[in-house]
Amino acid sequence: MSTEQLQQTPLHGLHLELGARMVPFAGYAMPVQYPLGVLKEHLHTREQAGLFDVSHMGQIRLRGAQAAKALEALVPVDIIDLPVGMQRYALFTNAEGGILDDLMVANLGNDELFLVVNAGCKDQDLTHLRQHLEGQCEVESLFDSRALLALQGPAAAKVLARLAPEVGSMTFMQFAPVRLLGVDCYVSRSGYTGEDGYEISVPAEAAQMLARSLLAEPEVEAIGLGARDSLRLEAGLCLYGHDMDATTTPIEASLTWAISKARRADGVRAGGFPGAERIFAQQREGVASKRVGLLPSERVPVREGALIVDAREQVIGRVTSGGFGPSLGGPLAMGTVQSEYAALETEVFAQVRGKLVPMRVVRTPFVAQRYYRG
Amino acid sequence: MSMLRFTPEHEWLRLEDSGELTVGITSFAQQALGDVVFVQLPDLGQYGEGHEVAVLESVKAASNISMPLAGEVVAVNQALSDDPELVNASPMQDGWFFRIQVNNVADLDALMDQAGYDRFLADNA
Lengths: 374, 125
Known about the structure:
The structure holds 2 protein chains of 2 kinds. Chain A is α+β, with helices and mostly antiparallel strands. Chain A contains 8 helices and 19 strands. Chain A has a 6-stranded mixed sheet with strand order 10-11-12-9-3-13, with helices on both faces. In chain A, strands 14-17-16-15-18-19 form a 6-stranded antiparallel beta barrel. In chain A, β10 and β11 form a beta hairpin. In chain A, α2 packs across α7. The model of chain A has no long low-confidence stretch (mean pLDDT 97). Chain B contains 4 helices and 9 strands, in the order βββαβββββααβα. In chain B, β6 and β7 form a beta hairpin. Chain B has a single domain, classed as CATH 2.40.50.100.
């Protein structure tokens, strides 16, 4: 696919100017890396701060007195009691309990919710919301009107506080309207790297000015999707369409933690989301296979799609994400294995080009998360 | 001066005084691949032209290195096992992959010389 048919984010011109290598991703031309290269971009983010253009992701606003109640019917997450100024991780499930997408939901107050969904799912998510929330609240697509920047890394707070001192006191998963360079933005203290940092929703027309201003700070480098992927993998974070999809339930994806207490089988608002019966049954009875972290014991990277076998070379699973972790200094992977192989420290093997690579089932994250919790 | 030849796959071959050919990838290729984090080297032995004998892994992806000409792999660069980044740092010298004894030295004539490779790069950039 040539890049001409692809959509462009408001930062497209800036990416080209910075010498980015652009690749097609979810229908957009996106920077996979800048001249610094994936390895150094990754390490820079962990050491100082990286700026990511994630404007391809879908931003959606729900508005209305019934918005929280209506959205709750689509996700196994407590939205009704989500405090104003807080954000929460959520999953859209289907009738079989499969994951249609994962998303962030923030409570803006004034009966408004702000959603960020995956780029590859955003049209389908919008349709899903409109179908199910019609008549209960307003569903507004912000796809073209807003850009999304992520500023991630240990220096992120110091850098962003230069533009707005109040962001320094925000804690992990807090969300606030913040004026940056005279522009009304939404800022959340969150991200997809395992580091402290922010995601900044900014009107499309002001995105380039804000990005240039952040890049002018000495701590900040532009970071591409290549490093975004290795950073999130080290942090043990799932990538939709790879580590889970519509055929995977939250239990199978080892995302049980994302099901709010209030919505569980013994919760105060138990169930009431698509696929609840199947998900609860899996919680009671267990699952045939589940997602685990995998640490290859040789230097060779084990990539997505590699078959996982036991010592007798019987296929017991598949690698869903894998590669090299620059901060870890070696290969790392996540994959789905039959539940009897999912215990920590179980030894399994990946088939890589006809050879068996030993791997251990390990706890994730691979690199400690460093969120700011106050 | 030793003779240097290039393939359209961005491999270089240098004819050594011993008559063996040292094989690596060009600076253009290493730059396109990005940071190399793992190199899988071939076993010594005979391989046909185009046979995939080595694998380069960058942070993002794996790429195959094929046998530029039919022949025998007589040596591999073990230094790459511990320092795969040599491919990026010194693609034409310390980052070589393996040495081959070609079956037919005349096969070299089909490959590009430096001027030919420079034109190839300019045409395909």
